[in-house]
From TrEMBL:
It comes from the Bacteria. SUPFAM superfamilies: ATPase domain of HSP90 chaperone/DNA topoisomerase II/histidine kinase. Residues 537-635 form the Sensor histidine kinase NatK-like C-terminal domain. The gene is citA_1. It comes from Hungatella hathewayi. The chain crosses the membrane at residues 21-41, 214-234, 246-267, 279-298, 305-326, 332-355, 367-388, 400-421. This is Sensor histidine kinase CitA. Keywords: Kinase, Membrane, Transferase, Transmembrane, Transmembrane helix. The keyword Transferase applies.
Length: 640
């Protein structure tokens, strides 16, 4: 490689990496902006309206149909207090989600056990119908509104309460005041009590909010599951792309399992849904890692190590919360830090290897890089901004994961279409090459036979000359005349007529004349072309070969007595005119200016190739499908 070429290659590499860096920065900035907007405008902790203080939320002058009960809650750790029994009790004041359990600010406090929450809402004096969202409360709960029990899930008085977690909506009538009292108990889960602020307001407003979340979850579940099943079938039916497609279908399947937990909670569920949620998320990351290695050509030990680490994290997410935390707040925090660190290291490696990857097309690399960056930013934002819970549009990691699936689904789809088109084109080229080889083989056979005939004629010519000399010497002129006449009519004088002065056209016509005899297809040839044309010989051969091949295939579908193929080619005023007519059965489709094959599904290549070549050489292409006869014509201007 010359020095100039080497410098050019280095410049191209730098240019590619610069483009990827710009894409990386653009995706990061757009994702941060999007999540910032969600953090600001779709966050229960920033929800507009009046907030509670010191156990009281005053909504008497508030006209908003929806509020989020985040701030001002009273909490009584390790106590179960019924309505009317709060006199003399000293509360702590918190916002929901401030703590993950019942510790209430005590570093040495027990996050498990039980607690009572209370919030008094001041309402307008007239009687109205209200709705309270029932969030996930860990793990058994009882709820009272104005001293009346409205929800009982599990037994909060049990030493080891069975988990009974359900989401939904509670409706009640109230005027002037609504006292909410929530008792909760938990002994095993890594969250305890009320950690998610519930929505409160008119029945329609709360119902619409819950329905919107349900719709979003259904869209994600159905779309990702459908995409996964589709690519699983594609993977089973394809060869070289099978591993990649199956890995992507696993990505979709694990993501579906991860985001469908709200559907389980609507009907009530135990701890197993949370184990499934965590396990499926880390299996989702494991499948992403395996797919990433396949896309980027990472093999051997690096691939096995990366997938093993991800699988180990998935196993840890199942085993550690269930068996090893033992209610220790410090252990829970260390476990959370470990998982955040693992995700940070994993996505740093994924993004770096995707950035320097050379295996895929630039489009696929860009989509992979964008999807990975989106998930990485979502994980960072979710870890850096813990005081967040979505009101309507879900968690950042779920949205980023869904976007990742859509991006890769689009990229793999276009890659699959491109690969299919290339394979189809390759198959057609192989067919044409086989036809050209058969043509050359037939011409070689004819040429060999002609040479053999010529050799025999030259061998026999000596005997003829000897006989003619002898008859001449003997002056037997009548016998000489009879001899010469017999020689002239001899079958040994086999002629191989030239069909056309143009060698390329003559070779193709000779081949198809022999095929016509073999297939019993009447072939009429009216071709008069000069030896030299501006059109390259191989292009002329491809044009004639495709046209005749198409006509022969159409004729073979007909009974023998109906078969007919006619070809006309000539130069008129310097322009090349070619027309092929054949009888046919009427099977023909043109849609959106594309010619569709009757041999297979999808666009045909033979006539499409003729059309493309004619237009590429400044010519015109015409189709005339009559009732009994199919005609293809083309004009190439100024060919002599």
């Amino acid at each position: 490689m010359s020095k100039g070429t080497s410098l050019h290659v280095q410049f191209m590499k730098k240019n590619i990496y610069l483009k990827r860096l710009c894409l990386l920065l653009l995706v990061v900035l757009c994702t941060i902006l999007l999540f910032f907007l969600q953090y600001r405008y779709d966050n229960k902790y920033h929800f507009p309206g009046i907030q509670g203080e010191q156990g009281i939320l005053d909504l008497r002058s508030d006209r908003q149909p929806l509020s989020v009960l985040t701030y001002g809650w009273e909490i009584y750790p390790q106590k179960l207090i019924a309505p009317g029994e709060f006199n003399g009790q000293k509360p702590h004041f918190i916002y929901l989600g401030q703590y993950g359990g019942f510790e209430a600010g005590d570093k040495n406090g027990n996050p498990h056990g039980c607690a009572t929450y209370r919030l008094t809402i001041l309402l307008p004096p007239e009687v109205n119908e209200y709705a309270l969202e029932l969030p996930e409360i860990y793990s058994a709960s009882r709820i009272w509104v104005n001293g009346r029990p409205v929800s009982i899930l599990g037994d909060v008085t049990s030493v080891n309460p069975s988990p009974s977690i359900r989401t939904g909506m509670i409706t009640f009538s109230a005027a002037g005041k609504a006292e909410l009292v929530v008792q909760a108990a938990d002994t095993r889960h890594y969250y305890s009590g009320m950690v998610y602020p519930p929505a409160f307001g008119s029945t329609d407003a709360v119902s619409d909010l819950i329905s919107l979340r349900f719709l979003r979850t259904c869209i994600m579940v159905i779309a990702s599951l459908t995409i996964g099943i589709l690519y699983l079938f594609i993977g089973i039916k394809t060869g070289g792309e099978r591993r990649r497609m199956i890995l992507f279908s696993l990505v979709c399947l694990f993501f579906t399992m991860h985001v469908m937990y709200p559907l389980f909670h609507l009907f009530g569920a135990g701890y197993w849904t949370y184990y499934l949620e965590d396990l499926s998320f880390y299996l989702f990351l494991t499948a992403i890692c395996a797919l990433h290695c396949s896309l980027c050509g990472i093999k051997g030990r690096p691939q096995r190590f990366a997938v093993f680490v991800c699988a180990a994290a998935a196993l840890a997410s199942l085993v550690v919360p269930a068996l090893l935390l033992n209610g220790s707040l410090t252990a829970m925090l260390l476990y959370s830090v470990f998982l955040d660190g693992f995700k940070l290291v994993l996505f740093s490696w994924l993004i770096t290897t995707a950035f320097f990857n050379r295996e895929q097309t630039e489009t696929m690399r860009s989509l992979l890089l964008a999807g990975l960056c989106t998930i990485a930013v979502a994980l960072l934002v979710q870890a850096a901004a813990p005081v967040f819970e979505p009101v309507r549009f879900g968690w950042q990691t779920e949205n980023a994961g869904f976007l990742f699936i859509l991006l890769l689904a689009g990229g793999l789809w276009f890659d699959t279409i491109r690969a299919y088109a290339e394979r189809t084109a390759l198959a057609e080229n192989m067919r044409l090459m086989k036809g050209q080889f058969a043509l050359q083989e037939e011409n070689y056979r004819i040429l060999s036979k002609s040479i053999e005939e010529t050799r025999k004629m030259r061998h026999d010519l000596r005997h003829h000359i000897t006989a003619i000399k002898e008859l001449t010497n003997q002056k037997q002129y009548d016998a000489l005349e009879d001899y010469l006449e017999g020689y002239e009519n001899s079958s040994e004088q086999t002629e191989w007529p030239v069909l056309c002065d143009n060698h390329a056209a003559n070779a193709v016509l000779t081949y198809y004349r022999q095929r016509a005899l073999q297939k019993q297809i009447p072939l009429s040839i009216h071709v008069s072309l000069p030896a030299e044309l501006k059109l390259e010989a191989w292009k002329l051969g491809v044009l004639l070969g495709n046209l005749l091949e198409n006509a022969f295939e159409a004729s073979e579908k007909l009974p023998q007595e109906l078969r007919s193929v006619k070809i006309y080619a000539k130069i008129a005023k310097g322009n090349l005119l070619i027309t092929v007519r054949n009888h046919w059965n009427g099977e023909f489709t043109v849609l959106e200016d594309r010619i569709y094959s009757t041999k297979h599904e999808g666009a045909g290549i033979g006539l499409s190739s003729v059309r493309s070549m004619a237009e590429a050489n400044g010519g015109q292409f015409y189709l005339t499908p009559d009732k009994d006869e199919f005609e293809v014509s083309l004009v190439l201007w100024k060919q002599v």
